[in-house]
Specification:
about 200 residues
Length: about 200
């Protein structure tokens, strides 16, 4: 039996990523996020309005999508408790968010130069996608940013035959109904696996 439910947020679980952007003065920002879709050479991310990442993207910043594995959950949570903005919203104050203009240092993360975009990559993340901003769609409380992947970086131990990510070696960080989680043993493989 099922019960009709009204949730505050229907957030059923997505892989976590950290997006790096840069403001007009060249200052870097990191945002912990998990609303995304990737298909082909495109990534679309959802970002809350009012964040430093929102203002950087609206100003035209390119981005790097840094994908952590499950071992980085505490650093991701630390980044999520920081804002690169200069003021705190009522909710941010309630949640204990701090203003921080150097999230790399505060979270103990290492900036790694990108090749074709200005924002840096996060060295600790095993998968990184340098992206150019294509467009932004306003969706009320958040924006959707469409990005084109220009360079993709993957740690060598994750690569299997033909340069494809070996899913048996990859343990992504999943935000499962706002709980940090990861994957277990494979249940099976899709017909397109390895292609």
């Amino acid at each position: 039996m099922k019960s009709k439910s009204k949730l505050n947020s229907f957030y059923y679980g997505f892989p976590v990523f950290m997006v790096t952007t840069q403001d007009s003065e060249g200052k870097n920002n990191i945002c912990a996020a998990s609303s995304s879709i990737s298909l082909g050479e495109k990534i679309i991310i959802g970002i809350s309005k009012g964040s430093k990442t929102h203002s950087n993207l609206v100003a035209g910043s390119d981005a790097v999508i840094n994908i952590p594995d499950h071992t980085l959950w505490e650093k991701v949570e630390q980044v999520g408790r920081l804002t690169g903005g200069d003021t705190l919203s009522e909710n941010q104050t309630k949640w204990g968010v701090e203003i921080c203009h150097d999230k790399f240092a505060k979270a103990g993360l290492t900036a790694e130069a990108s090749i074709d975009v200005a924002p840096p990559r996060i060295a600790e993340c095993p998968i990184q996608a340098e992206c150019r901003l294509v467009s932004i769609s306003d969706k009320g409380r958040f924006i959707l940013a469409e990005l084109d992947i220009v360079n993709l970086w993957v740690e060598n131990p994750l690569l299997g035959e033909n340069g494809i990510v070996d899913s048996t070696q990859w343990k992504p960080l999943i935000f499962n109904f706002r709980e940090y989680d990861t994957v277990g043993d494979a249940l099976g493989f899709n017909v397109k696996y390895g292609n």
